[in-house]
C-alpha cells in the first residue's frame, strides 16, 4: 500500500467543518468526544440545532474558552464548559439516556478506531489494553437515527481504519451510516461502502488504495468541499 | 420531634457503612459533580471489600495533584476535590461496575493497575444501561430489555430476546446498599435540587439504595424549595450533610 | 349468624380516627379512596408525616373544604383539593409509581370489599360487574411496606367481609397486614388472623360470630379506643 | 427559519391523525388535567377505530352536564372541559387500555355500556404498570419485569419469572402513534412545564409516541423557562397549541 505521505489531508477542525454540513436546523445532535466535539463551533446559532450531551443537557450553546466565563456545572460529556443557550434544559443521567434510547437523537457524530464495511463500529477498545471503556457511545450507536463517524482515514502507522471486517472489539454492530475522514466521505449502504466525496489532490482510486474495505465509486462522486 | 435528616459530620453519616457493601458513587466527569467529602469519609473509615458503581473508576492522589498543577482544561480542580479513585488506590474496592474503568489513552488509573494485577473485578457496562439499571432499582423494576449492547462484550452471558424483530438484552436492576451523591440544596426532609450538569448520576442514584446520603452546599428552610422544581423527592434520601464553609485540603482531616 | 343490629359501630370518621393512630412521625403514607382519605384529618401537622398520592404529590397538606381556597391543580387521587404543605413536591405518574414500586411507602391504607385470612386483598371488582377498575391500589398493595385495610366489618346485607377465603377477584395476594373495621382491629399473621382490638359493646366471641374467617383471640386483646 | 412547533389551531394539530391510531390521552381524574381541546378536535375530526390509553375511560356529554349542574365535589367543572369519554360515546374507540374502565359504583360510563354490548375491547392494567409501560416506550425499553399483578387478572397470559425469589410479570412498552397531553407553559422548541397535579400522566406520555401534541395555557419566549425546572424536554414534543383566550363552550365549534 502506498503511503501518499505528500498528499493533502484535512486537519481536525476542517473535518469538523465538513461534518457540520450534515447538521441541519431543528435536529437533535449528540457530539462524541474528540473531533466530533469541534463540530458545534461551525454551527451558527441561527441554525437552531439542539445539542445533547450524555451528562444531561439538551440544547447547550458554544464551547467556552474563557476561564472567567466558565460555569463548572455546565459542561459537556468531554468536560468542556459550554454556554447556556435559550431553550436548554438539564436532566439526570437516566433521563438523558432514556432520550437517547428512545430514539430521539437525530444524528450522533462519534470518533472511532475502526469502521467495518457493514457499518460495524469499533471505537472503545484500543489494541493492547486489557479492557476498554465503553462509555456512552454504545447507546448512541444503537439508538440514534443516524450515526456519523469522524476519524482519520488511517492510523498513525498507516493502517486503514475503514475495514472490510473490523478486528477490534465492536461497540455496536452495523450502525454507522457515514464516515467522514481527513480525505473522503464514505457512506455505508445496503450494497456496501460508497465513496461520496474525495479531498482535492486525491483520486477515488488513490482513496481505495489506502482503504482496506472495498469502495464503490459512483458516477456522481464529488470533490469534498468545506 | 420534627423530621431532620441532616447529619453533623460526614464521618457520622458513613459510620455504619460495612465492609463488602455495594455503593453507588454519584458524579460523572468533572470535580464539581462528585460527593468528595463523602468519598473522603469512606476513605477515612477504612471500610473495605466494596463494590462501587459509577461512570468512572477515578484517579489516584498523585494523578489528581498532577492534574491540578497542570490545570488541565480550563475548569480548575478545587483543592477539596476527592476522586472515587482514592478508594480504589487504597485497596478498599473489590469490584467496579463502570462505563469508564480505564482511560482509553494516557494515564493509567488505579483501577487499571489493580485490574492488570488481578486484584479487582470489573463489570463493564455502557453508561445508558448503567443509568437505567440504577433507575430500575429506584423504581422497583427487577430487570428490563434494552436493544443496547447485543452482540458486544457487555451482553456476554446475558439473555437476548427479540421484540418487534429487534434483539434486546436483559439487564438487571442494580440496587446498592448505599448511594453517596452530591446535590446543591436540601431541606430537612431530604428534598434535593442540583446545579446544572451536577444532576447526572447523582439524581439517578438517589433512592437506588437502601441508604442514600447526600452531600450538599446548603440546607434551606422547609418550603423554600419550589415543589415544581424538586428533582429528588424526600423519601429517596435518608441523610444529608452540608459541605464545610472552609474548604478541607486533605481527605485525611476528620470532617 | 346473628345480626347484632342493636350493637354499636364506628362511623367512617371514627374508623379513620382509629387508623390515624397507626400513622407515626416521619412515615411516608398513602391513603386510598373512601374512608382512608379521611385519616389525614386526624394527623396533626406537628406529627410530620408525608402523605403521598398516586397522581403525583409527596407531602400534601390537609383536605380543603373551602371552595374559595381550592387550587384545581393540587388534588389527591380521590379528586379532593388539598393544601400545599412545606416540603411537598410534585411528580409525574411514572415517577409517582416508581416511588411506590420501589418500596418507599411505609404504610398504605386502603378500602376493600373483602380481605382473606391469608391477607388476600379483593377491593376492585364489585359483584355483578363485568369488569372492575383496578386503579392504583394494586401497586400499593404489592409494594408498600405495610398494607392496612379500612372497611366495614360486613356488607350492607350483613355478609362478612373478612373471609376465610375471598370469593371476589383479588387485587393482590397475601398483602394485608391489618384490618380496621367498624367493630374491631384484626392483624394478619403467619399463624392466621389475630383479634387485637374490639369495640366497646362487643365481645370477642360476638366479633367471631359476624366474621367468616377464623379469629385467634390472644390474652392481650384490648378494647378499641379512639 | 427558526424552529417553531406552535400550531394555530387544534384542528390543524390533529388533522393527520388517522383511523386505527393508538393514542395516549393525558390527564388523571379532574377537569384541569385533561387536554380537552385536543379531545374535542379528535371528536370533530371523526377519526375512528382508535385505541386509547389512559387512567380513566371518561364520561358522556350528559354525565358531564349532570356533574357540572350538580357541582359534585368543591372543584367546579369548567364549561370547556371535554372528557375522553366523548370519543368513546361517539363510537370512535375500538379498544381501551385503562386502569379505570368503569366506575366501581354509581354511573355507567360510555365505555362500560359499549363493553357490555361487545362493541369495545378492554385491556385492564393497573395504574403503575400502565405508567411504567408508557415510560418504557419513551425510554426505549422494550419490556420489564414488575412484581405488581402476579396472580391477578392483569397478569393472565403474561410471562412470570422469579427474581430474588419473588415472582415478577413481564410487561411490554406501550408506544402510541400520538400522545395528546395538557401542560401549563411551553416555548417554541416544545419544552414544557406543568401545574401541580396536572403533571400526572401528561408528563408520562410526552415522548411515548411518534407524535406528541401539547395543549398549553401559554407559549413563552425561548429562555424564559428555567432550565433546572423544565419537566418535558423539547425533543419529546412535536406540536404545541395554545388554549383559546375565550372559553369554547361546545366541543363542536372549530377551534
- CATH topology-level fold name of chain B: Glutaconate Coenzyme A-transferase
| N-to-C span of chain A | 28 Å
Portion in strands of chain A: 15-25%
Any idea how many domains of chain A? 1
Helix percent band of chain B = 10-25%
Q: What is the H/E string of chain A?
A: HEEEEHEEEHEEEEEHEE
The CATH topology of chain A is Glutaconate Coenzyme A-transferase
Biggest sheet of chain B, in brief? Answer: 9 strands, mixed
- Molecular shape of chain B: globular
Order of helices and strands of chain B: EHEHEHHEHEHEEEEEHEE
Total number of β-strand segments of chain A? 14
Structural class by SSE content of chain B = alpha/beta
Task: Write up this protein.
The complex is a heterotetramer, with 2 copies of chain A (226 residues) and 2 copies of chain B (255 residues). By secondary structure, chain A is an alpha/beta fold. Chain A has a single domain, classed as Glutaconate Coenzyme A-transferase (3-Layer(aba) Sandwich). Chain A contains 4 helices and 14 strands. In chain A, strands 1, 2, 3, 4, 5, 8, 10, 11, 12, 13 and 14 form an 11-stranded mixed sheet that branches. Chain A has a 3-stranded mixed sheet with strand order 7-6-9, with no helix packed on it. The longest helix of chain A is centred in the first third of the chain and has 9 residues. Chain A starts with 11 loop residues before the first helix and ends with a strand. With 255 residues, chain B is an alpha/beta fold. Chain B has one domain: Glutaconate Coenzyme A-transferase (3-Layer(aba) Sandwich), CATH 3.40.1080.10. Helices cover 22% and strands 27% of the residues of chain B. Chain B is built from 7 helices and 12 strands. In chain B, the strands form 2 sheets. In chain B, strands 1, 2, 3, 4, 5, 9, 10, 11 and 12 form a 9-stranded mixed sheet that branches. In chain B, β4, α5 and β5 form a beta-alpha-beta unit. The radius of gyration of chain B is 18 Å and the shape is globular. The interface between A and B is large, with 51 and 54 residues. β6 of chain B pairs antiparallel with β6 of chain D.
Amino acid at each position: 500500500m502506498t503511503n501518499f505521505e505528500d498528499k493533502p489531508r484535512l486537519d481536525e477542525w476542517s473535518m469538523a467543518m465538513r461534518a457540520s454540513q450534515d447538521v441541519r436546523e431543528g435536529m437533535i445532535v449528540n457530539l462524541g468526544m474528540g473531533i466530533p466535539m469541534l463540530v458545534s463551533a461551525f454551527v451558527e446559532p441561527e441554525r437552531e440545532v439542539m445539542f445533547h450531551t450524555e451528562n444531561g443537557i439538551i440544547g447547550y450553546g458554544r464551547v467556552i474558552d474563557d476561564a472567567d466565563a466558565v460555569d463548572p456545572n455546565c459542561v459537556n460529556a468531554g468536560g468542556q464548559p459550554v454556554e447556556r443557550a435559550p431553550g436548554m434544559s438539564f436532566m439526570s443521567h437516566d433521563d438523558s439516556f432514556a432520550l437517547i434510547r428512545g430514539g430521539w437523537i437525530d444524528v450522533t457524530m462519534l470518533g472511532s478506531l475502526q469502521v467495518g464495511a457493514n457499518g460495524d463500529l469499533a471505537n472503545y477498545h484500543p489494541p493492547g489494553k486489557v479492557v476498554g471503556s465503553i462509555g456512552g457511545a454504545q447507546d448512541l450507536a444503537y439508538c440514534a437515527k443516524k450515526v456519523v463517524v469522524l476519524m482519520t482515514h488511517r492510523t498513525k502507522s498507516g493502517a486503514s481504519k475503514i475495514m472490510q471486517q473490523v478486528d477490534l472489539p465492536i461497540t455496536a454492530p452495523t450502525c454507522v451510516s457515514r464516515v467522514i475522514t481527513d480525505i473522503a466521505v464514505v457512506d455505508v449502504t445496503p450494497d456496501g461502502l460508497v465513496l461520496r466525496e474525495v479531498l482535492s489532490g486525491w483520486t477515488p482510486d488513490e482513496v481505495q488504495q489506502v482503504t482496506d474495505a472495498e469502495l464503490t465509486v459512483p458516477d456522481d462522486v464529488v470533490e469534498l468541499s468545506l | 420531634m420534627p423530621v431532620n435528616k441532616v447529619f453533623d459530620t460526614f464521618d457520622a453519616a458513613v459510620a455504619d457503612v460495612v465492609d463488602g457493601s455495594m455503593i453507588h458513587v454519584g458524579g460523572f466527569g468533572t470535580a464539581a459533580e462528585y460527593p468528595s467529602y463523602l468519598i473522603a469519609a469512606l476513605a477515612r473509615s477504612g471500610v473495605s471489600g466494596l463494590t462501587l458503581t459509577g461512570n468512572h473508576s477515578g484517579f489516584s492522589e498523585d494523578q489528581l495533584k498532577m492534574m491540578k498543577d497542570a490545570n488541565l482544561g480550563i475548569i480548575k480542580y478545587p483543592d477539596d476535590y476527592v476522586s472515587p479513585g482514592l478508594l480504589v488506590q487504597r485497596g478498599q474496592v473489590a469490584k467496579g461496575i463502570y462505563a469508564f474503568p480505564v482511560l482509553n489513552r494516557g494515564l493509567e488509573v488505579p483501577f487499571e493497575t489493580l485490574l492488570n494485577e488481578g486484584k479487582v473485578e470489573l463489570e463493564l457496562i455502557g453508561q445508558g444501561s448503567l443509568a437505567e439499571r440504577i433507575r430500575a432499582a429506584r423504581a422497583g423494576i427487577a430487570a428490563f430489555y434494552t436493544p443496547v449492547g447485543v452482540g458486544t462484550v457487555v451482553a456476554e452471558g446475558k439473555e437476548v430476546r427479540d421484540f418487534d424483530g429487534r434483539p434486546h438484552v436483559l439487564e438487571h436492576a442494580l440496587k446498592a446498599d448505599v448511594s453517596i451523591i452530591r446535590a446543591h440544596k436540601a431541606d430537612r426532609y431530604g428534598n434535593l435540587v442540583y446545579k446544572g450538569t451536577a444532576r447526572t448520576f447523582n439524581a439517578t442514584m438517589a433512592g437506588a439504595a437502601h441508604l442514600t446520603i447526600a452531600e450538599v452546599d446548603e440546607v434551606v428552610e422547609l418550603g423554600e424549595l419550589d415543589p415544581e422544581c424538586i428533582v429528588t423527592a424526600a423519601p429517596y434520601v435518608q441523610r444529608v450533610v452540608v459541605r464545610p464553609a472552609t474548604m478541607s485540603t486533605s481527605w485525611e482531616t476528620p470532617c
